[in-house]
Amino acid sequence: MRKKKGLKKSKDISTEEKIKQAARKLFTQKGYALVRTREIAAEAGINLALLNYYFRSKEKLFDLIMIENLRHFLQGLSVKVLDEKLMIEEKIERVVADYIDFLIANPDLPFFILNELRTNASKIATKMEAEIKPIRSNLIGQLQEAMKAGRIATFNPFHFMANLAGLTIFPFIGKPVLQRVTHVNDEEFRSFMEERKKLVPLWISAILKAKQ
Amino acid sequence: MRKKKGLKKSKDISTEEKIKQAARKLFTQKGYALVRTREIAAEAGINLALLNYYFRSKEKLFDLIMIENLRHFLQGLSVKVLDEKLMIEEKIERVVADYIDFLIANPDLPFFILNELRTNASKIATKMEAEIKPIRSNLIGQLQEAMKAGRIATFNPFHFMANLAGLTIFPFIGKPVLQRVTHVNDEEFRSFMEERKKLVPLWISAILKAKQ
DNA sequence: GTCTATATTCTGATAGAC
DNA sequence: GTCTATCAGAATATAGAC
Questions:
Q1: How much of chain B, in percent, has pLDDT values that exceed 90?
Q2: Protein CA A53 to sugar C1' C14 (Å)
Q3: Over the stretch B39-60, which tens digit does the pLDDT of each residue have?
Q4: B160 contact partners, CB below 8 Å, separation of at least 6
Q5: Total beta-carbon pairs less than 8 A apart between chain A and chain B
Q6: Could you give the C-alpha distances from B212 to A7, A99, A189, A194, B32, in angstroms and in order?
Q7: Distance between CA B134 and CA A194 in Å, rounded?
Q8: Are A72 and A109 spatial neighbours (Cβ–Cβ below 8 Å)?
């Protein structure tokens, strides 16, 4: 009978947390517009009324998940980029490898972010910009040093970011199409992503050194 | 008074076509879930009832647009890849340049395809596979020849397709994020995409030649 | 073919008992 | 805190007049 007020045990999570986990799963997979509140309730194993009791509205619940997902998506980057004193080449190696690990564990996040950013737009864009600013400054700054030192040829920040994201993140966004086109199953896909942890930094390096 | 039954003039398009154009615009921009049938009717300048009169349901209308968009998305590829007798290096140059032109004119298409493919999944996936198969075979075949001839080092079909799409298509999918991160306005973005028509083939070539 | 008005279903949110 | 029952509004689809 003390179940209600007992200390939180690892397996006996609170109703609030159950709802949040269900919401995170569904929102991340399908996006805000396609998820029904009744779906979340069912997934959480509770009643629809409880969702509103705890989170007031679908939108407020979503905002919560959105913020968490965004933070999750960005924090993987910031730790490696900002905290370590590494040469840019090594930094790229670590960031790419860590980020592919993160994406293997959270394959739906990039599409989720892009999708909701497209529709919600202004709402959260500013929050993201604040968190990403130091990351960009750090990377670009180090690249400019490398350019002055003559280790890379030319260097355009926009193309660099587009290439890094395109080679690292795109495979996860385009996964459904890529797999069909290339006849690659889930296991092989994962294996290729593991390969890319070493390949992408090589390719980025080759691109930076290529005459433009 | 003969307006109704007159021959179709270029500027006097039929009601059916007006609805289709409005639907294509809205579905492609916002995706199936976020578009309201009333919106389509308003955009087409007609009444809601006419939409159902001509297309029976929102879903049937969407399926029509989806098929057309998919065909549009793929045909740009097939013409260049299949019809011309060019070396693979030149072929890549032309495909990338033409495709970036196409994407500048239809920037929302890739995201639309990926988004609806994720949710609809099985429905249209098979249609896509049939159309894309010869394109892939042709490209991969020529690349294998180049490999045997020693012009490129190693070659993995999956990585190749992922890289080509990642460098060419991803900037359009990630545009909202990329622009914020790199402080690039619409005009500059377009200008960078123009640059990429020449840069991406160079980079793809550098990647193919890089030791792996 | 085109419209207005309405039916029907879906969905987010709340009231109120326990 | 949790549930059942229900409301209010939105969204798709249809009936029926013109």
A1: 65
A2: 10
A3: 999 999 999 999 999 999 999 9
A4: B139, B140, B143, B208
A5: 149
A6: 53, 20, 18, 14, 42
A7: 28
A8: yes
Could you tell me the pLDDT band of residue A8, with boundaries at 50, 70 and 90? very low
Q: Which of A74, A163, A168, A192 to mutate to test the interface with B (most CBs of B within 10 A)?
A: A163
Q: Which residues touch strand D (CB under 7 A)?
A: A 4, 15-16, 46-50, 53; B 35-38, 48-49, 52, 56-59
Query: Residue A25: pLDDT above 80?
Result: yes
A125 shares contact with chain B (CB less than 8 Å):
yes
Last residue of a domain, one of A24, A56, A88: A56
Same-domain status, A20 and A100: no
Residue ranges making up the domain that contains A9: 1-56
- A84-128: pLDDT as tens digits: 778 888 999 999 999 999 999 999 999 999 999 888 766 677 777
Residue B32 DSSP one-character state: G
Residues A188 and A99 in one domain: yes
**CB distance from B117 to chain A under 8 Å?**
yes
In this structure, are B80 and B51 located in the same domain?
no
Q: Does residue B115 sit at the A interface (CB-CB below 8 Å)?
A: yes
Q: Are A182 and A127 in a shared domain?
A: yes
Region B88-103: mean pLDDT is: 94
Nucleotides of D under 7 A from a protein CB: 1-5, 11-16
- Claim to verify: residue B144 and residue B167 sit in the same structural domain: yes
Residue B13 pLDDT > 60: yes
**Protein residue nearest nucleotide D14, by CA to C1':** B49
Token pair for B138: 């042709």
What is the share, in percent, of chain A residues with pLDDT greater than 90? 64
* A196 touches B at CB < 8 Å: yes
For B198, phi then psi, to 5°, come to -95, -30
CATH of the domain at B149: 1.10.357.10
Domain match, A19 and A119 both = no
CATH number at residue B28: 1.10.10.60
Residues B184 and B126 in one domain: yes
B109 pLDDT above the threshold of 90: yes
- Same domain, yes or no: A123 and A190: yes
Residues of B in contact with A34 (CB under 8 A): 33, 119
Domain boundary among the residues B56, B80, B98 is at B56
Domain count, chain B: 2
Place of tokens 């075949």: B141
Q: What is the predicted pLDDT for the residue at B170?
A: 98
